[in-house]
Task: inverse folding
């Protein structure tokens, strides 16, 4: 007959188990640190230029979230080698005045970014190719890459794609939260107007292919996604999107979309913005007030810069006074697991959306990136796997877009 162990034995047993767990955890942390230091860590989407354009923000100083989530000290602390600064312009009515204002704002954001990087050239440089990222990493510098979120500043002028390319922009997120001249958005309350890509949108895809500029399908409607994959001659990315099967938001990609993206050779960069990781609590004060704010500003379609500034001040105030209950790193890594099981390790990465709403309960800013690596190690991902997730997969896609005739082995 089985006999219960003595109290003395039980205490000893629990001590041994506890000690083994501590040793195992320390081993994991040490391994994670080594892997993170050796990986090329790339965040493919932040909205930091919105802060820079206001002036007075010093990238070389360490700031605190939620006011900002990206600066050089925290990028170094988080082991980030490269980060994409997204030049974001909200969708507005398509009038000549609004086209011109969006175009000017996009250029002001680029000017502000270039000015900040020149000021601290000993710490960071603008990177316009995968080779630049690797070169700067070897020099111990942070690579600042440029993307454009929303093609609204193109203003139906196909020549502007080349203009922005010459200014260093290396991807364009075709739309934002509302339909534009290029394509339908996944979240326009009025529904589709182009049935996917417009005729101008098809020209945009062709021109981006020709220039070697990455097409970003985050925010686009499902039909627009299908159209892009059908006509693009090179892989595309979702710079900051997550998995719809785990969080049923139209901003996320369905399993069929993820498989199609992978068949094309592309990559989905998991967005660590709470409402794209787990469904939001629609009864919370934070959710209710945010929806009221969204309605007030017509689904983030600002009529002018004053409205944009007021909206973001209100956004920060709501999060300060009514903090959301955020998901965890573990829940975000569930999305990575899902993509890996669905499409393989070669088609997933991370795009934080920091300074644009991104953040988790235990990953508040870029300094917390090593915690994601710890979770990946805990789940059994190898060093090679983690290096692909953090940057290898995205660099493969970027290299293919630049050199479509060159065969890139995952």
Result:
């Amino acid at each position: 007959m089985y006999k219960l162990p003595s109290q003395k034995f039980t205490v000893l047993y629990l001590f041994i188990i506890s000690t083994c767990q501590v040793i195992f955890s320390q081993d994991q942390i040490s391994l994670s640190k080594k892997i993170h230091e050796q990986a090329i860590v790339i965040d493919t989407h932040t909205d930091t230029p919105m802060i820079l354009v206001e002036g007075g923000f010093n990238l070389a100083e360490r700031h605190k979230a939620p006011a900002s989530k990206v600066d050089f000290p925290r990028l170094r602390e988080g082991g980030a080698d490269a980060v994409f600064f997204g030049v974001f312009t909200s969708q507005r009515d398509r009038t000549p005045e609004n086209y011109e204002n969006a175009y000017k704002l996009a250029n002001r954001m680029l000017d502000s970014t270039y000015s900040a990087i020149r000021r601290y050239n000993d710490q960071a440089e603008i990177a316009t190719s995968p080779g630049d990222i690797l070169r700067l990493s070897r020099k111990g510098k942070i690579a600042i890459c440029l993307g454009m979120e929303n093609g609204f500043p193109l203003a139906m002028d196909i020549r502007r794609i080349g203009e922005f390319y010459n200014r260093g922009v290396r991807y364009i997120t075709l739309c934002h939260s509302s339909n534009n001249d290029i394509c339908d958005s996944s979240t326009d309350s009025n529904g589709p107007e182009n049935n996917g890509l417009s005729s101008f949108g098809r020209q945009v895809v062709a021109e981006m292919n020709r220039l070697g500029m990455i097409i970003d399908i985050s925010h686009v409607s499902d039909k627009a996604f299908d159209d892009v994959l059908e006509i693009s001659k090179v892989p595309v990315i979702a710079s900051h999107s997550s998995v719809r099967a785990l969080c049923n938001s139209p901003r996320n990609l369905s399993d069929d979309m993820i498989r199609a993206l992978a068949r094309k050779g592309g990559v989905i960069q998991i967005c660590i913005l709470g409402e794209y990781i787990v469904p939001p609590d629609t009864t919370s004060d934070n959710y209710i007030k945010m929806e009221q704010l969204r309605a007030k500003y017509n689904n983030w379609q600002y009529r002018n810069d004053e409205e944009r500034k007021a909206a973001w001040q209100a956004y920060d105030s709501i999060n300060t006074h009514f903090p959301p209950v955020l998901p965890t790193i573990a829940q975000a890594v569930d999305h990575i697991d899902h993509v890996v099981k669905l499409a393989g390790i070669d088609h997933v990465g991370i795009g934080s959306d920091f300074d644009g709403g991104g953040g988790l309960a235990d990953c508040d800013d870029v300094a917390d990136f090593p915690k994601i690596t710890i979770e990946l190690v805990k789940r059994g991902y190898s060093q090679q796997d983690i290096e692909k997730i953090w940057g290898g997969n995205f660099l493969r896609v970027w290299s293919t877009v630049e050199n479509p005739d060159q065969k890139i082995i995952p």
